[in-house]
Amino acid sequence: MELGEAQGILDEASAQIQSIEQDGEQLGKQWQVGLRGLARRNEHLTETQTALTALEDELVTRRASLKGAENDILKSQEELAQVAEGTRVAESEKNHLASRLSQIHEETDRVQQRLNAAHTAVQRIAAEVDAVKEAKKGTEREIDRTEVQIQGVTQQAHLASERAKGIASETEGNRRITSAASKGLTSLQEQVTATDTTVRLTLNQVERAQLDILSAKELMNGLQANMDEMDAEVKAKGAVVERYETQIRRNSDMVEKRASDIARFMAKLDEYKQSASAGTEDTGPLEATLHNLSKEIQSMRKDSRALEDRWLARQGDLVSLLAKVDLMKKSVRQKTRQKEVLEDRLRVIEEQIQKRQKDIAQLKRDQDQAHAQLQRLNLDISRGNDERQAVEKDNLRLQSEFVAQLAVLEEKAKGLEAAAVESRNNRQAILNEILEIEKQ
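User: That's the sequence. What structure does it adopt?
Assistant: Structure tokens below.
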């Protein structure tokens, strides 16, 4: 709007200059009128010079306003540079987090290998349980190896959890470092094109961050698969425990059956002993049978105790696996929260980038308009100066001509005055002669 007013003032100045030229032509035509016309022309010239001076002051004011607008544009560019730098720092932080997530992924792969080994060992144990009486020592060794592997898996899961906590603490520290770095950024970026380049680089980094987030999602899926496998392993352990319980119940039933047989044989033995005391039958075979049954009962009780011990061990394994599953679930929840935080930060950064791109485009348009208006003003000022110089030259020329004409008129006036004096003298002489003639 101010530029429009300046253009109006320039138009008025142009009209005034044209009026001055017309006045100059009229003065050129009416130079014989005299000093009054010259004074009037000088007044017009003074008014024109005053208007041009006011126009120059207005142009100086407009230039100062444009300078302030350019300073505002530079400040906006500096803010954009700071935002770009903050975005770069955030992207470096994301890259660091991505590397940490990759390390966690490697640790998870190693844990998965251990879990697969443990699962294979459990399957071997389940196959050997069916023949527990025939391969008692081998089964115990497999159980020991399984326990060692489960302990190793537990330690690996604990290490993974500790590393995840370390990543969380590092993320918080990086966030504080990013905040402090954003506050302390003082570097400036003078050109809008450089800012556009930085924004494009930031967009590329955001795309890489999106790929990192996809990798993190894949890691979450892998952890979920590990949890599913752990659940399957827990179910397999539960099935093994159920088989042990079934075997224990079967052995208990067999022991009870053997106990009833022993009671029956004892009753028969008592009958035979009574008969033997009467001298009717021989009790030797029955005593041998009773002795064999007692040994068999002791052996079955020993096997039953061994099965109970194994059942207790499997219960401990089941508890350990449940604890491990809980740790994995906590790790998955933590990774999910980290993923959500990264997605939120990515969304905020994308919104900031879009906003800054719009601001940059608007600043470009404003800067182009300001430059165009400034060029038009400079052109108008140059034209006004040229026209003013031309008018001043015309005025000087007209003044010189007018002074020369005045000098000529003064010379003529002097000649006329001398002629008038001479005429008066002649007239007086004639009058004197007439008077003398009349007196005579």
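Residues 128-133, 156-161, 163-189, 279-283 have pLDDT under 50 and may be disordered.
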